[in-house]
Amino acid sequence: QMADPFRYDAGERSRYECLGHEVQIEHIKAYVCAPSFFTDKAVIVIHDIFGWLFPDIRYIVDLIAGHGYVTICPDFFKGTDPWKTTDHWADFADWMKDHDPTKVDKEADVVLKYLKEQCGAKKIGIVGFSWGGMAVHHLMLKNPQLTAGVSLYGRIIRDSEERYDLLNPTFFIFGEKDHTISYDQIILLEEKLKQYCKVAYKIKVYPGQVHGFAQLKPEDMKPDDKPYIEEARKDMIDWVNMFI
């Protein structure tokens, strides 16, 4: 039996009134939020296993847009069902086979084209959470159009030298108490990046934090966790601001 990767019950989330709107881009639906002024800077947000409709991820999109970016969260599951809180963890490995975070290139290209042609974006960054963190790590190795990336608690899925040859600056955020990612993996990531990575990178581990910590809405935060959640989000925005 695999441990539930989220320590909070994802079914018991508070309601969230979104600030953005939904669009259809070729074969993909997406949630978009943009600032009230024109900007040629954009950020793609990649959702976790709970998908693009999940309130927490929409809150993050709105938060990033508030810092002056056209921000978009596409449905990387292409209309198929996200993981649901009622699903059984015994089935998770099979579900992951059909939802591979390293098979996101086509969708990323469609969204990049939309941001450039329809939104006038010249610099585009990417931020991803959990499943999305893995997708960000993959895309930062493959897609030079992405100026900077932030991977939040994406499991470190394979160990090969090409996994560390990032194309553009990437920031890796982890929680100290994340039981899906061992500290040894993080140490290895750091050693390998030092060896193979030719661009700016950063790894930071936040004390006492579990998997999924950085995407909580304010009313869902525990007081002890709040400073670390806010710090992680500020660090994420600072990284994006630095390169985009």
| Percent helix | 25-40%
The N- to C-terminal Cα distance equals 42 Å
* C-alpha geometry: globular
Spatial order of strands in the largest sheet: 1-2-4-3-5-6-7-8
Q: CATH architecture, please?
A: 3-Layer(aba) Sandwich
Mean pLDDT: 92
Total beta-strand segments: 8
Main pleated sheet: 8 strands, mixed
Count up the domains: 1
What sequence of helices (H) and strands (E) makes up the elements? Answer: EEEHEHHEHEEHEH
Approximately what portion of the residues adopt beta-strand conformation?
A: 15-25%
Q: Quickly give the structural class.
A: alpha/beta
CATH superfamily: Alpha/Beta hydrolase fold, catalytic domain
Radius of gyration computed on alpha carbons: 17 Å
Number of helices: 6
CATH topology: Rossmann fold
Low-pLDDT segments, ≥5 res: 1-8
Family: Belongs to the dienelactone hydrolase family.
Subcellular location: Cytoplasm, Cytosol
Organism: Nyctibius bracteatus
Pfam family, one: DLH
Layout of strands and helices, then pairs:
Blueprint: E1 21-25, E2 28-33, E3 41-46, H1 55-65, E4 70-74, H2 92-98, H3 105-117, E5 123-129, H4 131-142, E6 146-152, E7 170-175, H5 183-196, E8 201-206, H6 226-243
Parallel strand pairs: 3-4, 3-5, 5-6, 6-7, 7-8
Antiparallel strand pairs: 1-2, 2-4
